[in-house]
C-alpha cells in the first residue's frame, strides 16, 4: 500500500513536470520526423534488385514437375526473375561461383536443389522464397492429383500472382528510415529512464523530503520499490506514447509481435532505471546526474539512435563500444523481431537487460544499506 | 612489499613463459635469452639500494620489455608490473600510472588486448592495495613509536612528580613543625615559665605574707589567661582558610606557568570563593593546569586568562587563550581526563575553539 | 511517563564529536526547548532521535521503548518539522499532507479527515488545492508543520520552525505550538531565538559543543547565574530614607543610592516591583523612571559559555 502511494506520488512528479515531459516526448518525435525524412536515401530498402538470372538444369526428362516448373518460370519471368536452361557443358555451381548467374536450380525426380550465391544475398533470398512457395504449391498439386487429377491444373493455375505477392512483401521487410528512427527513438527514450532514476533519490534529498520519508514508519525498501515502480510506469507510458504516435502518425512498421516488443522495452526501462539509481548512489552529489546523462548520450550515439551503425563492424574499438551499448542490443534484437519475425532474438536482450538490472539494483541496495538516511 | 612484488612478477613471468615458449611449435632460443635478460635486470633491481639507480633500472626494464614486445607480444603483459613499481616512487600520481599502463592498448590487438587489460587491471589493483596497506602500516608504526615515546616520558615525569611532591611535602611539614615549635617556645613557653615562677613565690609567701601571695597568684592567673588566649590565636593563625589555600595555590601554579613559558597570564576571581569545597578546588586546579599545558603546547598564544567565578548555583572556571584556536576540536586524552574528573562531581567541561582556545569547567553546587 | 529518554548519546563524525555523551529526559506534556548556537549539536541530536542518523553510542527511548529495537513504534509516535522545508512544490497542499500522513498507515476517509484537520490547524484550509510554489515563506512553513502533525504524533520535534519568516507567521506558529501542547502533544522546540524559547518552553536545555551545560525551567536556568534582580528607580529627589522604606518589602535585599537614583537588589524569584513602587508612591515620592534588569536566557548563555548565541 505504501509502495503504491509512493509510486503514484512519483508519477505525479513526472507528469506535472511539463518541461521534462515535453522533452521526453517532443524531442524523440521531432527527431524521428527530421532524421526520418532527411536520411531517407541512406537506407537500402529502395535498392532495385534488377534482373535476376537463374540457371536451370532439368534432369527429370519431362514429367509433371518439369511442366509445372515451366509454368512457374513463365509466370515469375514477368517480375524480372528469369530462369534459363543451363548451357550444355557448363557447370551450374561454377556459374554461380563466378557470379554469372544469381542461382542455379537442379530439377531431379527427387526434388529441386537450389544453389544460391552468397554475394547476391538479396537475390538468392528472393529466389529461395519463390522456390519454396512453388514447391509448396507443387506438393499440394501432387497430393490433389493423386485423389482428383482434374483439379490439378486449377491449383497450379491460380498460383501466378501468389509468387509475386510474396515477393513484394519480402522486399518491404527491411526498415525504411522512418521505421528505423521510430524504433531507435523509442529505445533511446526507454534508456532515458536512467536520467530520471538518477534524480530519484537525490531529488528527495535536495527537496529535503528525504527526511520525512526516512522518519516515516515504513521500510527503506518500500520507498525504494515504490519510487522504482512509479518511475518505470511513467517511463513506459512515454515509450508507449512514442510507439503509438510513430505507428499511427508516421505509419512506422512495428511488426506482428507487439507483445514481445513491449516486453523488451519494459526490460530495457527497468535496466535503465537501475543503472541510473546505481549511478546516483555510487557517484555522490550532483555530479552523478551529469555523468549519467553523458553515459546515456554515449549509449544513444553508439547504439545507433542518431544514425545507423553498420552491422559488420565487429572488432576494433568502435565495434567494442557499439556492442557495449544497451540501446544497440535492444535495437538489434527488436529489428530481428519486427522484420525477420524472429521472436527468439528477443530472449538474449531480455536476459541481458534483466541481468544488468539485477546487478545494478544489487549495487544500489548495498550502497543504500550502508548509508545513513536515504 | 618486496616479497609481494617478487611473487607477482614470478607468477606473471611463468605465465608468459608458458604461453610463449612451451606452447610454440619450435624451440626459440632467443626467447630463452630474453627471459634470462629480464630476470637478470630484475635481480639487479632488487639488489641495488639507491632510489635513483632503481628508477634507472626500472626504466631500462620498461624499454627492454617494449623491445621484447615487438619480438613477441606476450612480453607486453609484464609491462604493467614495471609501471606499477616505477609509480611506487611517486605515490600521488595514480592517474598518470593508469594512463601509462593503458597506453600499450593502442598497439595491441584481439586476444592480446584482452589479456593485457586483465593483466593490467590485476596488477594495478594489487599494487594499489599493497601501497595502501603499506602506507597504513607505516603510519601506524610511526604512531606506535610516538605513543611509546610518550608513555615513557609520561612515566618518567610521573615518577619525578611523585618524588618531588613527596620531598616538598616533607619539607613543608618540617618547616611548619619548626615554626610551630618556635612559636610555642617563644610565646606560650615563656608565659608559662613566668606564671610558674610567680606561683612558686606565692607558695613560699602563703603563710608569711598572704597579701603579697595573693597578688602573685593573681599575676600568675593573668599570665595563664593570656597564654591560653595566645594558644587560641596561634591555633587560629595556623589554620588557614580553605578558599585562600585553593586560590593561592592556583595563582602560584599559574604564575609558575607564566615563568616557565613566558606567556602573559592573568587570574581573576569573582563571587564568594568560600563555597568551593577542597574537592572542587582540586578538580579546578587540575583542569586549569591541564588546560594551561595544552595551551603552551598547541595554541601559539601569547596570553592566557584564567577566571574563577562563583555564580548562584554554578562554579565556573575558564582558561582562555588568544591563540589560533581550532575550528573542530578533536578530543585528546587531556580533555577526556578533564571531563572525567569533572563528571565525578556532576559538572561538565566545554572546549571551544572559535575565538582562541577556551576551556570552561562548570561545576554545580548546592547553594546556601 | 517519560516520552523521551536519552542515555549517554554520542555521535562522532570521524574524529569530531558532534554530540558528546548526552543524557536527557523529557516528560509527557512538556514544551522542551533546545537552545544553542549553530553547530552546537542540536540538529545532530534531533536527527538521531528521528533515526536519520545512527548514534555512535548511547540509547534513545521513546515512550520507554528503545528506538533501535522498536523503530516502527517510535516513528509512529514521532512527528518532525524539519529545519529546511520538506514539501513537494509540485503537489497541492492537500496532496502533500495526505501523502505524508498516508505513510503512517492512515487510509481512506480517516486519511482525508486527518489531512483536512491538519490543514485547518495551520490555517491553510482555503489553500488546500493550491500549489506550494505560489505560497509565501510563512505559508510554506505552516504547510511544513501540517505535514508533520496529521498522523497525531505524541512527540513533535520542531527544528527552527521560525527561521526567516515574517512576524505574523511567526506568532501564528508560536500559537500553534501552544495549541498542540494543550491538545496533549509533547514538543521539542529548537531555536536560536532566545525570546521564543523563553516565551513558550516549559523546560530548556542549553547545548554547547555537543553537551548539555545547563537544564531546567527558565527560572532555574536564570538562578544558576544569580537570583538577584537589579531595579533602578529614578526619583525627583532623594532623602536617604528610602532604604528603610523598602526594607519590609518581601524579596528586597539591599538598597543603594546614587544621586537621585536608588538601586534595589531583590530576589529575582519574587515579583515585587509593584509593591516597591507602591511603597514609594505612598510615601509621596515622585518617580521619574523605572528600569528592571532581570537576567534573561541570553545572559545565562553568555555567562556560561562566554559567547553570544548568535555569533
UniProtKB/TrEMBL annotation, chain A:
The chain crosses the membrane at residues 21-43, 180-203, 224-246, 258-283, 290-309, 345-368. It is found in: Cell membrane. Pfam families: ABC2_membrane_3. This is ABC transporter permease. InterPro entries: ABC-2_transporter_component, ABC2_TM. The keyword Cell membrane applies. Residues 18-366 form the ABC-2 type transporter transmembrane domain. Its main location: membrane.
From TrEMBL, chain B:
InterPro entries: HATPase_C_sf, Sensor_HK_TwoCompSys, Sig_transdc_His_kin_sub3_dim/P. It comes from the Bacteria. Keywords: ATP-binding, Kinase, Membrane, Nucleotide-binding, Phosphoprotein, Transferase, Transmembrane, Transmembrane helix, Two-component regulatory system. Its EC number is 2.7.13.3. The keyword Kinase applies. It is an enzyme of class 2 (transferase). This is histidine kinase.
From TrEMBL, chain C:
Transmembrane segments: none annotated. Keywords: ATP-binding, Nucleotide-binding, Transport. The keyword ATP-binding applies. One of its GO terms (molecular function) is ATP binding. Pfam families: ABC_tran, DrrA1-3_C. The keyword ATP-binding applies. Residues 4-234 form the ABC transporter domain. PANTHER family: LINEARMYCIN RESISTANCE ATP-BINDING PROTEIN LNRL (PTHR43582). This is Antibiotic ABC transporter ATP-binding protein.
